[in-house]
Design a protein that fits this description.
Elements: H1 2-25, E1 32-42, E2 47-57, H2 61-74, E3 79-87, H3 91-94, E4 104-114, H4 117-130, E5 134-142, H5 145-171, E6 177-184, H6 193-198, E7 201-212
Antiparallel strand pairs: 1-7, 2-4, 2-5, 3-4, 6-7
């Protein structure tokens, strides 16, 4: 009986050892690599998104509107986004004065997209020449849709090349893996869209999954 028990115990231990080896060998994750490819490119030739605000007296309002309408002929993308007229006197300043148009101020904001710095400079000079009180802010970059699509494809290819270089390093050389999945990732991470807008850059990020081969 003791010999029988010893034999059964040895058999069970052997089966457990074999089972453990089989589980380790069959783990599919050991045969795969996953990397993130990245590429970032400056865009010094990109256009500008501008925010132009007139903030001045009512008696110059119509003159500014006329100027803005003429500018729209050169820059069709120009769009009025805010128009505000407000009383510019505090109650204690009024005394017994009657309300007059000169007591009002007006504020008008336009969003403008320009293709280059030359157009940007002409707009600034034109506003100065007309003597309008204004604020002009750069709110981001602009690329024509067709050109943007072309750039995105080029950047994605370069991000994929970066991922392949990482796979070559991790697998021990080219030809030792097979790509089985590519996923485009959020290209605004980790800095957010403001970083890329104000630094005039575009970026691409892709997640690449590859299966290791026996070559």
């Amino acid at each position: 009986m003791k010999k029988m028990n010893a034999w059964v115990l040895a058999a069970l231990l052997g089966a457990a050892t074999l089972s453990g080896c089989q589980t380790r060998t069959a783990n599919p994750e050991e045969d795969y690599l996953q990397v993130i490819g990245e590429y970032e490119q400056p865009m010094p030739e990109a256009g500008y998104r501008l925010s132009l605000t007139y903030n001045g007296p009512m008696n110059m309002r119509q003159e500014f509107i006329h100027w803005a309408d003429s500018l729209r002929e050169e820059v069709p993308s120009m769009m009025l986004t805010n128009d505000n007229t407000y009383f510019n006197y505090m109650p204690e300043q009024m005394a017994k004065e009657k309300i007059k148009p000169s007591m009002f101020q007006t504020s008008m904001t336009y969003n403008i997209v320009v293709p280059d710095s030359a157009t940007y400079g002409r707009i600034i000079q034109s506003v100065l020449d007309n003597g309008f009180p204004f604020n002009l802010n750069v709110s981001g970059t602009f690329v024509e849709p067709a050109e943007k699509q072309k750039l995105q494809q080029e950047l994605m290819q370069k991000a994929l090349d970066n991922a392949k270089a990482k796979l070559n390093f991790l697998s021990g050389g080219e030809g030792k893996y097979e790509i089985v999945g590519i996923e485009e990732m959020d290209n605004m991470q980790p800095y957010g869209p403001e970083y890329y807008e104000f630094n005039r850059k575009m970026a691409s990020r892709v997640k690449v999954r590859a299966r290791l081969t026996s070559n």
